[in-house]
Amino acid sequence: MTAKRRTPQKGIILDTLCRMGSHPTAGELYEEIHRSHPSISRSTVYRVLGQMEEDGLVMRVCLMGSDDRFDGNVRQHNHIRCRRCGAVADIPWVEVASPCETAGYLITGYTVEYTGICPACQAEEEQDRRAQKAVVS
Ligand SMILES: [Zn+2]
Ligand SMILES: [Zn+2]
Questions:
Q1: Is 89 exposed, middle or buried (0-12, 13-18, 19+ CB in 10 A)?
Q2: What is the distance between the alpha carbons of residues 127 and 34, in angstroms, rounded to a whole number?
Q3: CB of 94 within 8 A of CB of 86?
Q4: CA–CA dist 82, 88 (Å, integer)
Q5: pLDDT in tens, 3-12
Q6: Could you give all domains of the chain from N- to C-terminal order, each with its CATH number?
Q7: Which of 41, 46, 80, 110 is most buried as measured by Cβ atoms within 10 A of its Cβ?
């Protein structure tokens, strides 16, 4: 096979991103794609992600203490991050009121990041508590 076949890389990357639904970093997304499409290189994933971000097909999510993550859900929404395992989930968008005092700044945007404990970690913490109780009694 000498003819270079154009692979639908964009579609593969977008499908994988939406299927994962976990707001992966570019590296995590590459690892996942690599398992089923080993021919797609890391640099291709990064480059195509950048293009898709410019085209508004994916959203870059910047959260505290984390590498930039990517989101296939480009509708306006907020994120909540688990303080225990770092998982990130989508939650509905809530408009935030503008402060009446801006220290002379012109506001151009804001970031809202909720933190909490995800359902899986809540279950684990509950299990830990029960195990501890069992040891004590
Ligand atoms: Zn968690
Ligand atoms: Zn999201």
A1: middle
A2: 35
A3: no
A4: 6
A5: 445 558 999 9
A6: 1-74 (1.10.10.10), 75-137 (3.30.1490.190)
A7: 80
Give the pLDDT confidence of 56-100 residue by residue, as tens digits: 999 999 888 778 999 999 999 999 999 999 999 999 998 888 888
Q: Quick one: how far is CA 121 from the chain centroid?
A: 18
Residue 115, token pair as written in the block? 């933190």
Ligand 1 centroid vs 87 CA: distance in angstroms?
Answer: 6
Query: Which has the closest alpha carbon to 17: 54, 70, 66, 53?
Result: 70
Contact (CB, 8 A) for 115 and 88 = no
| Residue ranges with CB less than 5 Å from ion ligand 2 | 71, 73, 90
> What is the secondary structure of 60-72 as a DSSP string?
EE--TTS--EEES
